[in-house]
Design goal:
With 137 residues, the protein is α+β, with helices and mostly antiparallel strands. The chain is 28% helix and 39% strand. The protein is built from 3 helices and 6 strands; from the N terminus they run βααβββββα. Strands 1, 2, 3, 4, 5 and 6 form a 6-stranded antiparallel beta sheet that branches. The longest helix is centred in the first third of the chain and has 18 residues, at 24-41. The chain is elongated and about 45 Å long. The protein starts with a strand and ends with a helix. The mean pLDDT is 94.
């Protein structure tokens, strides 16, 4: 997979469950935070887009848990992007930083709601054009 963005994060104590591993729900937060940072790098503000009446919302997710992360683990969250019809498909992998072990693999399919209706967003299309051209099937 050709990644187009990555960021580093650290597991915080309160993200772990009684077993001492990251609770599964926190991977959704990691994925979302990575996408929001990617948006900023593309020159888009999630909040500003909302104020304009354009909301990118998750339509579907597929999650695969490989190797658990633990408290104080540093990890690298990477993403790739394609556009399939009206959907933006983010393929996101999380690797433990110290050994590059794949810990999590997820896919998030997002669609845009423009002024209350499902639609393409010219703003998102323009911001992602460079990446989508290179990565779409």
């Amino acid at each position: 997979m050709k990644y187009i963005f990555e960021t580093r994060m650290m597991v915080r104590d309160y993200e772990c469950d009684i077993e001492g591993i990251v609770n599964n729900a926190n991977y959704l937060h990691y994925m979302e935070h990575t996408r929001h940072l990617f948006l900023k790098e593309c020159g888009l503000s999630f909040a500003e887009m909302h104020r304009k009446g354009i909301d990118a919302v998750v339509a579907r997710m597929n999650l695969q848990f490989k190797v658990p992360l633990r408290s104080d683990d540093e990890f690298i969250s990477r993403l790739a992007l394609t556009k399939e019809g009206i959907r933006y498909v983010f393929r996101q992998d999380i690797f433990r930083a110290n050994d590059n072990q794949l810990c999590f693999r997820g896919t998030a399919e997002l669609v845009c709601i423009v002024n209350g209706r499902l639609a393409n967003s010219p703003e998102y299309d323009a911001a992602f054009a460079h990446f989508i051209e290179k990565n779409s099937p």
